[in-house]
Structure of tRNA (guanine-N(7)-)-methyltransferase:
Amino acid sequence: MVSEQNDSPVPEPHGATRADRRLQFPEGPAVDPAGSHHERRIRSFRPRRGRVTSGQGDALRRLWPKWGLDIDGRSVLDLDEMFGGRPVVLEIGFGMGEATAQMAAADPDTGILAVDVHTPGQGNLLALAEREGLDNVRVANGDAIILLREMIAPGGLDGLRIFFPDPWHKKRHHKRRLVQPEFVELAASRLRPGALVHCATDWEPYAEQMLEVLTASPDLENTRPDGGYTPRPDFRPLTKFETAGLGKGHTVHDLVFRRR
Ligand SMILES: C[S@@+](CC[C@H](N)C(=O)[O-])C[C@H]1O[C@@H](n2cnc3c(N)ncnc32)[C@H](O)[C@@H]1O
């Protein structure tokens, strides 16, 4: 069982700002990797926060240069070279990375490009990958939209996973939800025909939005003949946010669509 690394938080120096964190990990993930050459727009994530534990910090220092990637939006990635020719699945918003590591361990012939902005999670996933001896995981830091738009070639991906994206409950925040028509159009353009898009959420209104938006895409078809939700596939482990949602009595919906 792949689980979160448990160790104590490293106190940040008195008065340290988030920008200072780069100083803690000089070879690690950058605070704003795409920088000011990219437009300002509504984002689907909160600023990364949370303390980095000593184990996560150690993993960031040692493993980021080898397995980490800042999303600077400046060049198209050579995924064949990064993953030794394996098919590549993009996971957006891996959180602490437990489910990512478990799925990567269960399917070593698939490369997993895992993206999030959450520094402790990046360290956690790197540590898990090392502990489990995984060579098929790369950790990308920054906005998945910039990654898709600027750094992935059309048809370059063999799959897309979005598990428990931030639900943005309040109406005035709905525009921040990741799964929207524009996003789906961009994502579909980066998938090869036959690639699967797998989403899951425990927030019913967001599940309905996902079903509507994915169904409306001319590039995708629902793998469910009845056009509805898919029962949770065995290969998707329970995630941290899912466990919390189930604890609150929420129903989880999976959606699996195929690129035409
Ligand atoms: C609610 S958490 C779910 C984490 C994990 N999948 C789970 O189920 O435990 C959503 C994650 O998506 C990340 N995220 C949201 N929008 C993103 C984006 N545009 N690019 C990269 N990461 C993003 C957030 O930082 C957050 O860690």
